[in-house]
Amino acid sequence: MVTIPMRNTFVLAMALGISMGLAGCASSRPGFSTRPLEELLQRACAPGQDLREVSGSVWMKVASRESSGQFPAQVRAVEGKRVDLEVTNLLGGVEARIHVDEAGYQLDLPGKKGRQASQERGEGHWGGIPLTWAPDLFLGRVPCPPRARWSELKYERTALGGVKATLPARLGGEQESFEYSFRRFEGEPWPETLVWTKSGAFARQVTFQMDDPEKGSSSPRKIVAKSDLGEVKIRWTRRDLTR
Question: Strands 104-109, 68-78: parallel, antiparallel or unpaired by DSSP?
Fold first, then answer.
């Protein structure tokens, strides 16, 4: 059943939405330790890059100190623009409609017995997980450093044969690192885990685990994102792709 003990936390969790039922942890993959580090980063960022729009059905689960719940939802994600979710209960009734874009999120709760219709707006992150990644995550892309700054990246090879790409802090900014490990999919490295770390006054860390790569797009159909403040999971049950 759907539970919404705190609407604001609930919407942030859903807006970022990240997948359910993921198996296994990363392990070293023979053959990847000799790949150029720049190539490994390209492989990490390749999933879903040819997709312009995705719609379909997901099963979501959220957990934090403030709220928890699991529910089905209908999703539409448009490249670089927005995500729209319609959250339903197990009987098909609409529990909430959520819109996320670069400006933030909007939550619409329809009126029903015991609850008046209402609307909320906000921005930022849920549980330390930035909402700015929501459109790309639902499209099936993996969080990556901004391509406009790839020339600034410092690379390291990890003990698991993966790559760590660090983006130096700019004036007034904070350093970010993206550490990927890989497994083999269709003969090539495929990003299995990502640990994103941001240093500075607002330091945080988010771990992403990906599974069930989609044929054709290589997008993960299952993703889990977890910080020390919360966790969001999504499992796609149907994906309609537009290239």
Answer: unpaired
- The H-or-E segment that residue 138 falls in is helix 134-139
User: Which residues have C-beta within 8 Å of that of residue 108, sequence separation ≥ 6?
Assistant: 96, 97, 98, 117, 118, 119
For 34, list phi and psi in degrees, rounded to 5: -100, -5
Which three-class secondary structure string do you get for 158-174?
CCCCCEEEEECCCCCCC
Give the other-Cβ count within 10 Å of 236's Cβ: 22
**Tokens 């992403």 correspond to what residue?**
208
Q: CA 106 → CA 12, 101, 102, distances in Å?
A: 10, 9, 11
| Predicted local confidence at residue 104, as pLDDT | 77
What is the pLDDT at residue 29? Answer: 52
- Structure token digits, residue 149: 């700054």
Measured in residues, the chain has a length of 243
Q: What pLDDT score was predicted for residue 68?
A: 78
**Residue 45 burial (C-beta neighbours within 10 Å; 0-12, 13-18, 19+):** buried
Give the separation between CA 222 and CA 214, rounded to whole angstroms. Answer: 10
Retrieve residue 202's tokens. Answer: 């607002």
What phi, psi does 137 have (nearest 5°)?
-60, -40
* The predicted structure's pLDDT at residue 15: 47
> Which pTM does this prediction carry?
0.83
Tokens of 155: 């690379």
**Residues of the chain predicted below pLDDT 70:** 1-31, 66-67, 126-127
- Structure confidence at residue 177 (pLDDT): 97
